Predict the 3D structure of the following.
Amino acid sequence: MARIATLKWQLAIANRVFKYVGYAQAEIDCEILADKLRDRFGQDVTRFRYAAIPRGGLIVLGMLSYVLGLYGQIDSRKGRKKTLVVVDDCALSGLRFREYLQSRKEPEVIFAVLYSHPALRSAIEQRESRVAACVSAHDLQDYAPELFGDRYFSWKQRWESRSDEYWVGQPDHVSFAWNEPDLSFWNESTGRVEAGWHLLPPEQCLKRRNHKQLVPVQVMDEAESAMRVSENVLVAELNDRLLVANLLTKKCFQLSDVATTMWRTLAVSGNIRSAAQVIASHYSADPSMIEQDLRVFIRGLEDQALLRKEVGSFVS
């Protein structure tokens, strides 16, 4: 339950600061990044060699190579005396860049990235003597001071003591048509950093299509749904069934096949009668009997504080 409670908080933050970058926007971003490189180092940036941090950086470098007119400058691990431009799609903590930098021997490196926070770039330049500059097409915003308020400095100190990242913050949750960066969080119960949930559905992210999410989060539009889920309730899917957890009571329920069908149908139906018609049609059953079963099901959910009891509820 400690993991679920933390992930619900993380999910709320990510939804609030979510930034999605499709291929068309990425092309525009690469043009901006190319201009930033020219402004910083002059028009002849083809004198550098270029390499990418796998795998998102490879897509960015492919686009950037067309914008800059790169051909033989793409990295072949030769001519290591030349300045190397390392390309990536985003940098959140800089750990991927550090790992890649350690694998290279070039005396001078430029880090070119589509999205990053200015403080992160400054930290890399200060701590890495080989890094001549960090250039970014766009700046990310740090929401940590606003999110944590009076707890910000203590939160930052704790996180910095747990890791050796260049920079600690809560930037925009930037995701791409090809990649969604991993989210991580500190689990107080286990005393370690753990991976969080991914938010992008497979059809919007190439990386996600071959990696089925273990527990995909269900987000319901209450404006069009008969369901009114309680504020402290989290719903997720596991092995074709739904898990419903109440973070206040610390109770978690795995719904049966029938209950899962009821929940899902109510989630997309405007009222209980419509849901009963859909289920009855699927099972060749009497709609009036299904409606009675749905009312019992909903009252049971309300008794467990999984649904909100409201005046004029559709149950009554």
About this structure: The chain has ten helices and eleven strands. The chain has a mean pLDDT of 81.
